[in-house]
Amino acid sequence: MNFHIISLFPNSMSSYIKESIIGRAIKDKKIRVKFYNPRDFTRDKWRRIDQKPYGGGPGMVIQAEPVIRAISKAIARKNKYKIVFLSPGGKQFDTKTARQIAQSIKDLVIIAGRYEGIDERVNKVFKTEKISVGPYVLTGGELPALILVDSISRQIEGVLGNDLSLEERRISSNKVYTRPEIFKIKDKNYRVPKVLLSGDHKKINMWKNAGNK
């Protein structure tokens, strides 16, 4: 799968995608991540990318045309693609959406905004889907873009190595334990729950399903 990220600050994401599972997936050619800086698609010598918003208000708005050119470059000669416009007011992103994208899309374009946002006319030129990663506002779309790359990549066969590593496909717990069985801090013993040491998988699964009480 190919991820095409439209961002003014691609270097802010490069270190994350080089590490751990995502880095290995890129090395193994399970996924590919490409960046497109709208500033590289401006047509003036100052490479200006933003202007004051019509109607007034604080901050600056990223101009539509450089973003449109960047997207056009990303989708050139592509057939099976999807364009995501990251927005706090968009549809809530979840694992179900990640799975659907991983199973149906070959090229995903992710538009990461900055400042006061991107000129809305980008969404009129292209058929985009507005997506939010949560009920909060961030200073830019780079972190949400990485969330999408990470979550969707996990759903691609071979990225995790073992299909059972997908917590959503098995009975998993939000509380996990490992060795040692007991350790002491300030004269207090901290133990692994006995059920996890029992070897009785039925009881262990019941414990996990009960909210780990």
Protein model, in words:
It is a single chain. The chain is an alpha/beta fold. Strand 5, helix 4 and strand 6 form a beta-alpha-beta unit. The strands form three sheets. Strands 2-1-6-5-7 form a five-stranded parallel beta sheet, sandwiched between helices. It has helices at residues 11-17, 20-27, 64-75, 95-104, 122-125, 142-154, 201-209; strands at residues 2-6, 32-36, 50-51, 61-62, 81-92, 107-111, 128-132, 182-185, 188-191. The protein folds into two domains: 2-164, Alpha/beta knot, CATH 3.40.1280; 171-209, no CATH class. The two termini are 40 Å apart. It contains seven helices and nine strands; from the N terminus they run E-H-H-E-E-E-H-E-H-E-H-E-H-E-E-H. The model has no long low-confidence stretch (mean pLDDT 91). It is 30% helix and 21% strand.
List the defining traits of the structure above.
alpha/beta, Alpha/beta knot, 21% strand, 2 domains, two-stranded antiparallel ribbon, 7 helices, five-stranded parallel β-sheet, 213 residues
